[in-house]
Design brief:
Layout lengths: L10 H11 L5 H8 L10 H6 L6 H9 L4 E5 L2 E4 H17 L7 H25 L5 H14 L5 H11 L3 H26 L4 H8 L2 H5 L3 E11 L10 H20 L5 H12 L7 E4 L3 E2 L8 H5 L10 E2 L3 E12 L4 E12 L7 H16 L4 H8 L3 H4 L4 E6 L5 H9 L9 E3 L2 E14 L1 H31 L3 E3 L3
Antiparallel strand pairs: 1-2, 1-12, 3-4, 3-5, 3-7, 6-7, 8-9, 8-11, 10-11
Helix pairs in contact: 2-9, 5-6, 6-9, 7-8, 9-19, 10-19, 12-13
């Protein structure tokens, strides 16, 4: 599953990032994480110790003597040896699940410790800045984790966790809060520091990388069913048949799945596994030009129509299944636009939800009786910005409006008005004055170039900011 990338991180960087932001957490890992500081590493200690053969016996003995000692001081916080061992054990588990080789102990320990230090430095900065996580987003992430672990609700998931390990849910919740806070902080810092000028865009579009933007882009969801042995060698016919059964289940499920969100496809992938002993590997790999696709399956992807699912694709490592989520032709980009106006009645301290609904229904009755939409919008709409222009929102493109508004706008005929509907802003009635196809190829191409430049500059910018933040912090590593 090798896709060409402009910036190719090492497998360990990918792993460490996954450990920081991953939400696909199995129950056994959550229970272990909830008891990090008090429970010794049992399941992976022998494996981790075996990878230390390159360290001399004196170092290993010193580490054993300081199992609960401090290995690093970060500002006002400490990182304990037991915490480091726990993080390394989780890294080893993740590597095993991904069929990756386990590196030398000194390399693994050093990089995991650096990631723990980076995490603490950022959490300290977040505390000083007073950054908070949106409660709805937090609930959404936790609900997603609950569903991935087979719970019918978040309350059921909490009960299961706390039964398995007292305080397990609270430990998980705190971990997710920290992860989301760090993610928000990094997004803010990169957005603040990365500056892209129109000249930068012009120069990029003239480069070989810029030329690639003008090619067709394919967005595959790529799933691999690995064979029953980890190395992919000497695969028996029985192992191939077992993998093929899983692949066929996947194909049937993908063909019947109308939602192409990453979450729904990942959930479908987990259901299709049904006890298969090796972990399925799958991801939405984003938009790729033809020459960025894996050479052995590029033609299979290119020949798919949007929404189609491939046949089982046999490789040396396993059976691949592809669903083409989307395809774009960046040379020509035509979008639907709607000339729209609306009336909004928003609940307030003086207007209850029920009263707002009654008022919008009364206005709808007036429209049915022939009242002028523009006049009603100017007189009654809570949206003062558009009310002053007879409710006009101008030409609206897909993605400009909130989901309920966009859905109603698309199904309303030109010259007609909608039935009342609700969004987070209140109760609406909209009118579509006209519809058109608009060529926005130039604007779209320049926006794609800006996004490509942003993705190009962001990693280095984030690394430089991280080094600056660490330079402003007190960090001391305690060597045994």
């Amino acid at each position: 599953m090798k896709y060409t990338k402009k910036i190719q991180p090492t497998w360990l960087q990918v792993l460490l990032k996954a450990l920081m932001f991953g939400t696909a957490i199995v129950l056994s890992q959550i229970a272990t994480a909830a008891d990090t500081a008090t429970k010794p590493v049992e399941n992976h200690q022998d494996l981790v110790q075996a990878s230390k053969q390159d360290l001399n016996q004196d170092q290993a003995q010193a580490q054993a003597q300081t199992i609960d000692g401090v290995v690093a001081i970060v500002n006002d916080s400490t990182i304990l040896n037991s915490e480091l061992d726990q993080a390394v054990a989780q890294a080893v588990t993740q590597l095993q699940r991904q069929n990756q080789p386990i590196p030398k102990a000194n390399e693994l320990y050093a990089q995991v410790l650096e990631q723990m230090i980076n995490r603490q430095v950022q959490l300290d900065f977040i505390k000083r800045q007073g950054l908070t996580v949106d409660e709805d987003r937090l609930t959404g992430v936790l609900t997603g984790i609950a569903k991935q672990n087979g719970s019918s609700s978040l309350a059921d998931f909490q009960q299961r966790l706390d039964k398995q390990q007292p305080g397990g849910y609270q430990a998980l919740r705190q971990k997710v809060v920290e992860d989301l806070s760090i993610q928000l902080l990094q997004q803010q810092q990169v957005a603040r520091l990365v500056r892209i000028s129109e000249k930068d865009v012009d120069k990029f579009l003239q480069s070989p990388e810029g030329e690639k933007l003008k090619q067709s882009q394919y967005r595959p969801f790529h799933i691999r069913v690995p064979y029953g042995n980890k190395d992919g060698e000497n695969v028996s016919e029985r192992q191939k048949q077992e993998a093929l059964q899983v692949a066929n289940r996947l194909i049937n499920a993908l063909q019947n799945e109308t939602s192409n969100t990453t979450a729904s496809l990942e959930n479908l992938m987990q259901k299709a596994q049904q006890g298969y002993k090796l972990q399925l590997q799958g991801a939405d790999v984003g938009y790729r030009s033809a020459n960025e696709l894996p050479t052995n399956i590029a033609n299979d992807i290119i020949n798919l129509k949007v929404g189609e699912v491939s046949k089982p694709l046999f490789t040396e490592q396993g059976i691949d299944v592809i669903k083409l989520i989307d395809k774009t032709d960046n040379i020509k980009h035509i979008i639907d636009q709607y000339q729209t106006r609306h009336i909004l009645i928003s609940p307030s301290e003086n207007l209850s939800e029920a009263m707002a609904k009654q008022q919008i229904e009364a206005l709808y009755q007036q429209l049915q009786q022939g009242a002028d939409f523009a006049t009603l919008a100017s007189t009654y709409s809570s949206d003062t910005g558009s009310a002053g222009n007879s409710g006009s929102l101008g030409w609206v493109s897909e993605g400009d409006m909130v989901a309920p508004f966009e859905a109603m706008m698309k199904q309303t005929a030109a010259g007609d008005f909608s039935t009342p509907f609700q969004s987070q802003f209140g109760w609406h009635i909209l009118k579509v004055d006209a519809k058109r196809k608009q060529d926005v190829s130039k604007t779209y191409l320049r926006n794609m170039a800006k996004e490509a430049l942003y993705q190009l500059f962001a990693p280095q910018t984030l690394e430089e900011w991280m080094q600056e933040l660490k330079a402003q912090s007190y960090i001391k590593i305690i060597n045994d």
